[in-house]
């Protein structure tokens, strides 16, 4: 639980952090009950609390960039999730 709490706090941190591992974000989403499905290429579809979004897994790096963190933050807020 502490790991997921730290990831959630990192997503909502200000200023936006560019070094959050995508694998940690996926683990958090699964912990929150999200449905993840593979799309074309590096796309991943996420459904959580009636909200849907498509994200791109970062590659070749494992860290999520600031723009993707901002998008994830917005998605989680819309799904009713905040730290």
Mean pLDDT: 93
Q: Structural class, please?
A: alpha+beta
Shape: globular
Number of domains: 1
What's the architecture, going by CATH? 2-Layer Sandwich
Major beta sheet summary: 3 strands, antiparallel
Instruction: Output the strand order for the largest sheet.
Output: 2-3-4
User: In DSSP terms, counting alpha (H) and pi (I) runs of 4 or more, how many helices?
Assistant: 3
CATH class: Alpha Beta
Termini gap: 13 Å
Written account of the structure:
The protein has 83 residues and is of the alpha+beta class. The chain has one domain (2-78): Metal Transport, Frataxin, Chain A (2-Layer Sandwich), CATH 3.30.920. It has 3 helices and 5 strands; from the N terminus they run αβαββββα. A 3-stranded antiparallel sheet has the order 2-3-4, covered by helices on one side. Strand 2 and strand 3 (43-48) form a beta hairpin. Helix 1 packs across helix 2 (22-31). The model has no long low-confidence stretch (mean pLDDT 93).
Outline the secondary-structure elements.
Elements: H1 2-11, E1 20-21, H2 22-31, E2 35-38, E3 43-48, E4 51-56, E5 63-64, H3 66-78
Antiparallel strand pairs: 1-5, 2-3, 3-4
Helix pairs in contact: 1-2
Task: Please sum up the structure shown.
With 83 residues, the chain is of the alpha+beta class. The chain is built from 3 helices and 5 strands. It has helices at residues 2-11, 22-31, 66-78; strands at 20-21, 35-38, 43-48, 51-56, 63-64.
């Amino acid at each position: 639980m502490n790991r997921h709490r730290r990831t959630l706090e990192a997503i909502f941190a200000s200023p936006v952090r560019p070094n959050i591992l995508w694998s940690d974000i996926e683990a958090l989403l699964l912990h929150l009950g999200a449905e993840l499905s593979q799309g074309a290429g590096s796309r991943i579809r996420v459904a959580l609390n009636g909200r849907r979004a498509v994200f791109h897994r970062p590659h070749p790096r494992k860290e999520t960039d600031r723009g993707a963190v901002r998008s994830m933050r917005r998605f989680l807020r819309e799904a009713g999730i905040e730290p």
